[in-house]
Amino acid sequence: MTTQKWIHKTVAFCLMIFFLLMPALCSAEGKIGVVLMHGKSDTPEILDAVKTALSSAGFLVETPEMPWSKFRYIDATYDQALYQIDSVIALLKSRGANRIVVAGHSMGANGALAYGAYHGGVNGVVLLAPGFFPNGQKYKESIALAKKMISEGNGNQKAAFEDGTQGFHFHSTMRADVYLSYFSPHGMGRMGISAAKMNPNIPVLCIEGKGDRHYVPGEEKIFENLPPNPYSKYVVVDANHEDTKEKGVGVMIEWLKNLPE
Asked: Regarding the domain with residue range 30-133+189-261, which homologous superfamily does it belong to in the CATH classification?
C-alpha cells in the first residue's frame, strides 16, 4: 500500500469514528444538569415520572437519596446534606452538564433553596410544592432539649424529639445536633431565611398547588423574600401537595429551556 493510500484510509477511518461519536458528543455538550430531591420520608423513586419527563426533554438528571429519606430518616445534619449535593453536582458535570439547577419536591424543595442560599454556584433553583416549616413554637420543648444536650456536650447522642409531616405529629429518634440543624426556627430549614440569603444572580422557579394544605400565600414569605431576578417566577397549578411535581413538570421544562446562560 502506498503512503498516499494509507493516509486516505486513515483519514476515512478517523472521519467515520468522528461521525459515529458526534451524536453522543453533541447530546452531552451544553446540557443542563438537574439535581432533583425527594420529600421528607420519601424515596428517589417517587420522582421517577418527573425524572423521565426531564430526561426526555434533554436534561441530565440525578435523584439522590437524601438524609431525610424513608430509609435514612434523619441521619445527617442539614449542613452535611448540602455537602452531599456537591458530590451529585460533580457527577452531573462529569456527565457533560455545563449548567446546574438544584430542584426538589416538598422537603427537597426546602433543600434546593437552602443549597442555593448557603452554597450557591448554581444556575437556577426549582421549588415544587415547597414544604417543611420548622416552627419554634410548635417544637419548642424538643428544641430546648436539643440545645441542652448540645450545651452539655451530648449533641451526638440520640433522643426522641417532636416531629411532624403533612399535619401528622409524632416523635422521631435522632441525634440532638441533627435535630436542631433542621428544626431550629433560625436555621437552614427556614425557607424565608434561605430566600433572603439567595444570590440575586440565581433565578428561582416556585411552583405551588392550590390544593396543597401548605399553600397559604405569603405565610412563609418564600418567593417574597427572594432578591429581584427577572427570570424568577411564581406559578400556582391545580394540584395537591403530592401531584404538584407531576402537574408542574411542564412549567419546569419550559423554564429550564429558557434558562439564561
From this structure: Alpha/Beta hydrolase fold, catalytic domain (3.40.50.1820)
